[in-house]
Specification:
This protein is mostly helical. It folds into five domains: about 110 residues; about 110 residues, Winged helix-like DNA-binding domain superfamily/Winged helix DNA-binding domain (Arc Repressor Mutant, subunit A), CATH 1.10.10; about 60 residues; about 60 residues; about 50 residues, no CATH class. The chain contains 20 helices and no strands. The radius of gyration is 25 Å and the shape is elongated.
């Protein structure tokens, strides 16, 4: 094996950072009680790694190395500020022996609080005091280890816009004196809901990109799944966490079948189910079983996972239990009062009980303000109208849907369906 190049070392540093950054930033936040400062200190450690590892090689325990360097930055900072002398002395004593300590000893010290720290960091990054866009950007930055440029490219917004969101978010958290803690009681439930919302927003942006020319962005799906699995380990007694993981796993199982050779989207009912990833399906069904085993009524994510499981368990589209799916959508609609859920129920009802029944439900949503510019309403109506043989009306609906979508791949699919109606 030849010598390791600087490029290979840099890639190794970036890979380590993606894995370890959340742990390091979380541990530092516990020490300095300021998430913005903690990230700056962690970034200092990353710069040190980029400078030193090409010469010294990647250490046996890179996470502990980064944390040790960052702790030294904390000591230096506290000394410069000439305060918290006792804390300086304590951290100094810890670091006096760090050069001689084994990687296992450093890791043991790091693990004392790390799982709790990462969970606290999640709750801080997704705090309701921040806008949804800020929560998403800060979560990807602090817990995903993504650069500002990577986040900007994922959401097709200018890099300076993302940078400003992150800076403002950290300043807002500091000004609001958001505590570095896991909330309790009703606040915990509300805050956990915010965390789950952010993770699923990231997943959905990867699964069906809202804008641009790509139908999917797999790296966003992978990041959301990583965050979801991490959260499930941290709060194993929360059924909705397992429900969200189940939903993402089952949806991710279809990724390879969702696009054709040229990247064009393939509708669910037209997909080759032999290309569905059985490992993701097994993981998803297991996570759903964990959510159900915890008892109580299923929440929104677990219900959506149960709906996805109806597809996953069917070998063909014709074998899908559409009646059960329609009932599950009914339960979900009662829970969320969402017109988008009602639109999905219309699809399931149309499959279970005929296109006329589905179209009646879809038509009832025509006046919903939330669906006024939602491209899937005319798309669903188009599907149902085709099944009823009303192709002229269907063509108009597909053309309207194409005009509303901001995704280039989806627009091409809808225009193709409109053209097919004209040829019928």
């Amino acid at each position: 094996m030849g010598p390791v190049t600087a490029t290979e070392t840099r890639r190794a540093v970036e890979a380590v950072w993606r894995i370890e950054s959340a742990r390091v930033i979380a541990g530092l936040t516990r020490m300095v009680h300021d998430v913005g400062l903690a990230e700056e200190l962690a970034q200092d450690a990353l710069v040190a790694a980029l400078e030193q590892w090409p010469e010294s090689g990647v250490p046996r325990n890179p996470g502990a190395w980064l944390m040790t360097v960052a702790k030294r930055r904390v000591v230096d900072m506290l000394r410069r500020r000439e305060r918290l002398e006792e804390k300086v002395a304590q951290l100094g004593r810890e670091l006096q022996t760090s050069d001689d300590a084994t990687a296992a000893e450093i890791e043991a010290a790091l693990e004392d609080h790390i799982e709790d720290d990462v969970l606290r960091l999640m709750f801080v990054a997704c705090h309701p005091v921040l806008s949804t866009e800020a929560r998403v950007a800060l979560t990807l930055r602090l817990l995903g280890g993504l650069t500002t440029d990577e986040i900007a490219r994922a959401f097709l917004v200018p890099e300076p816009t993302v940078a400003k969101r992150i800076v403002r978010a950290k300043r807002t958290l500091t000004d609001a004196k958001v505590p570095f803690e896991v909330p309790e009681g009703a606040e915990r439930e509300a805050r956990l809901s915010s965390v789950l919302e952010v993770v699923y927003l990231v997943f959905n942006e990867g699964y069906s990109a809202t804008a641009g020319d790509d139908w999917m962005r797999p790296e966003m799906c992978a990041e959301a799944l990583r965050l979801g699995r991490m959260l499930a380990r941290l709060v194993p007694s929360e059924p909705e966490v397992h429900g969200l993981v189940a939903l993402m796993e089952i949806q991710e199982s279809r990724s390879a079948a969702r696009v054709g050779p040229s990247g064009e989207p393939i509708r669910l009912l037209d997909q080759d189910r032999g290309r569905w990833n059985q490992l993701h399906i097994r993981r998803g069904l297991a996570a759903l079983a964990r959510a159900e085993a915890l008892g109580g009524s299923l929440g929104p994510y677990a219900l959506q996972a149960a709906i996805a499981a109806c597809h996953a368990r069917a070998r063909t589209a014709g074998e899908t239990d559409w009646a059960r799916m329609a009932a599950l959508y009914g339960s979900l609609a009662a829970l969320t009062s969402s017109p988008i859920v009602e639109l999905n129920r219309a699809v399931a009802v149309g499959m279970a009980y005929g296109p006329e029944a589905g179209l009646a439900l879809a038509d009832a949503l025509a006046g919903e303000p939330a669906l006024k510019d939602y491209h899937l309403l005319p798309s669903v109506r188009g599907d149902l109208l085709v099944k009823l043989g009303r192709t002229d009306e269907a063509r108009t609906e597909f053309e309207r849907a194409a005009a509303l979508t901001r995704n280039g791949r989806e627009r091409a699919l809808l225009l193709g369906r409109a053209a097919a109606c004209g040829a019928a």
